[in-house]
Amino acid sequence: RVPPLRGAHVRTYVRMIVTALIPLFALRIAVLEARVAWDEPIALGPAPGDPQVIGACTPSAWDEGVRPGLRVGEALARCPGLDLVVPDPDAVRIAVDRVSARLEDMGAAVQPDGTGTWAFAADGLVRLHGGLPAVMRRARAALPVGCGGRVGAAPTPFASREAARGGVVVHGDEVAGFLAPLPASRLPLPPRAHQALSSLGIRTIGQVAALPHASVLDRLGREGERAWLVARGGD
């Protein structure tokens, strides 16, 4: 952190992380490669040799009762017109690199996760581009047109990613309140930990944040402790 300057009218510097994301990224790339319309009922089919279950699906497929994890036969029974597209990891990597290069051109030190999410600290860029809104506009412009891309910002990586889902900016004193009503299933925890929270009737991130520290550590271990800190607005 940059040390705060002294003076009655000087605001303390606060880090902001900008996250750009493309929802259903792998599916969108597969749809583009297959040259089919996004508004049709479409789902990611299994790659050769993989279990016969489907992956992400378009909103119209969801409306027909299709869900990720369904076996192919059951998905087709629910939606006879369902179109299955094959995942294309090479095309995904190319798309990730292309967006990363565009963001780097604006001076961002980007951290892509390979699944359609790019994060970077806005520190120097805010001064370079004339404010956080300008930085976010530049980041949004780096995403492919018509991909449903979103950009958000917050002081911590997890909160920034969640802010990007809604395309909002969350400031430091707002993080815990912003996260509180969100589903606990979004916390970075392994499946067994999520099952443990569900068995306790815990459904929201705010409920996780309200748990006693000792209880979290005892039931969920260090992974749970990290998620508990994140839920309380920590880094």
Radius of gyration: 20 Å
The main sheet comes to: 4 strands, antiparallel
How many helical elements? 11
Mean pLDDT: 90
Q: Decide which structural class fits the backbone.
A: alpha+beta
Q: Beta-strand percentage?
A: 5-15%
Number of strands: 6
Poorly predicted ranges? 1-13
Strand order of the largest sheet: 4-5-1-6
What is the percent of helical residues? 40-55%
- How far apart the termini lie comes to 13 Å
Taken in chain order, the helices and strands follow as: EHEHHEHEEHHEHHHHH
Principal-axis shape: flat
Summary tags:
about 240 residues, alpha+beta, disordered N terminus, four-stranded antiparallel β-sheet, 6 strands, 11 helices
Describe this structure in words.
The protein has helices at residues 25-34, 59-63, 72-78, 89-105, 123-129, 132-141, 157-166, 175-179, 191-199, 205-209, 213-231; strands at residues 17-21, 42-44, 83-85, 111-112, 117-121, 150-154. With 235 residues, it is an alpha+beta fold. The chain contains eleven helices and six strands. The strands form two sheets. The protein has a four-stranded antiparallel sheet, sandwiched between helices. A two-stranded parallel sheet has the order 2-3. A hairpin with a 4-residue loop joins β4 and β5. Residues 1-13 have low confidence and may be disordered. Helices cover 44% and strands 10% of the residues. α1 (25-34) crosses α4 (89-105).
What is the strand and helix layout of this fold?
Blueprint: E1 17-21, H1 25-34, E2 42-44, H2 59-63, H3 72-78, E3 83-85, H4 89-105, E4 111-112, E5 117-121, H5 123-129, H6 132-141, E6 150-154, H7 157-166, H8 175-179, H9 191-199, H10 205-209, H11 213-231
Parallel strand pairs: 2-3
Antiparallel strand pairs: 1-5, 1-6, 4-5
Helix pairs in contact: 1-4
